[in-house]
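Propose amino acids for all 117 sites.
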């Protein structure tokens, strides 16, 4: 039993050969790209495994830190996180204000040298 498509006798042989060659080149490039991607992902996986091991080691050491030190560390972390969130909120508000201004004045130039503030 024959597999695949029936041979199209209307296509010139040279064109068929060129199409086959192009297909093989595309397939080879695709396989090469997959191999490169696989190698990259394997390297990334090894790095991430090492990072997880290191973080687990650090977490194991944190268990030996006195409770008062952990409380102080948690308090400072929460303060820093709060400061970051305030800064991000202010930045987001500024960006939104700028976007509203830009949308409202989209027909005007962004910088007007004749106006003074």
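Proposal:
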């Amino acid at each position: 039993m024959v597999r695949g498509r029936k041979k199209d006798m209307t296509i010139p042989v040279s064109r068929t050969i060129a199409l086959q060659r192009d297909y093989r080149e595309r397939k080879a490039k695709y396989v090469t790209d997959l191999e490169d991607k696989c190698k990259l992902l394997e390297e990334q996986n090894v790095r991430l495994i090492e990072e997880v091991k290191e973080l687990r080691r650090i977490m194991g050491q944190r268990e030996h830190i006195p409770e008062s030190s952990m409380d102080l560390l948690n308090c400072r972390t929460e303060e820093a996180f709060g400061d970051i969130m305030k800064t991000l909120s202010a930045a987001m508000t500024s960006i939104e204000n700028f976007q509203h201004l830009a949308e409202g004045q989209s027909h005007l130039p962004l910088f007007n040298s004749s106006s003074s503030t």
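The mean pLDDT is 81. Residues 14-64 form one domain.
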